[in-house]
Design brief:
7-stranded mixed beta sheet; 10 helices; Rossmann fold; 321 residues
Length: 321
Amino acid sequence: MLKHRNEIKVFSGNAHKQLTEDICHNLGIRLGDASVDHFADGEVAVSLYETVRGADVFIVQPTCNPVNDHLMELLIMIDACSRASAGRITAVLPYFGYARQDRKAKARDPISAKLVANLITKAGADRILTMDLHAPQIQGFFDIPVDNLVGAPLFVEYIQSKYTAAELDDLVAVSPDVGSVARTRSFAHRLGIGLAIVDKRRPRANESEVMNIIGDVKGKDVVLFDDIIDTAGSLCAAAKALVEVGGARHIYACASHGVLSGAATERISKSHIREVTLLNTIPPQDEQLACDKVKYLSVAPIFAEAIDRVYEEVPVSTLFK
């Protein structure tokens, strides 16, 4: 499968080693030999136990909770590979933390996503491989190539396996807020189903008040589609409004990144939602695995193919379709 003249090396930080192992399995190679530990005072200690000189190196590390620890691991791993004369270093971030801080919402706000992009580039990364950035324009924060993979095809394939063509006529894709309309419209177009929008007002951080529903969901099954589920407060409120105000029949949800902070899993368990389907860009915790409403789809095959395409110097764009 891999015939490039330079050797390929895939390393993992501590954020999601299982996903990295699955990616290596799909590529037919072994996981790179390295350790990422901590000194007594909490500083990150990285050791590479094999040569990377001239190699095409891929470091898989979603910057999920604890975000700052995983980000520092990534930066130090990139620096270690750079100083060991790696031929090219690609930072593979299935989930890009700080992506929601992509603009100044009010005076004196930082643009943390840009700062993180600068840090990764300065550390020595030559390329970024990620999935479903919260805002597509974050690609422009980097001064190196960025491949932003899309998870929608995985959800489309999963839903098509659950519904017949006739049943899809009674399915509606719903955007949980105005900001997610573009990605939900694309998702609906892929499935050939209708679109609706939950219009809401957010009085303060992590709280939302649903105002009204734009579109017809009465008597229909709906799929709430978003890129991130964090506290699940907005998602569960949207599901409640779709049933109690819109008259929807069954509620499902799909999201690329299951952050699931705090009591998110408990909220989902008690909500009107019948099933939440997530991609495993963030490692599931025991609480999520124990919840019968939460299901995960693997992104290992699509990242393995993207890595193979980057390594072989062939277009990655076909994976966006």
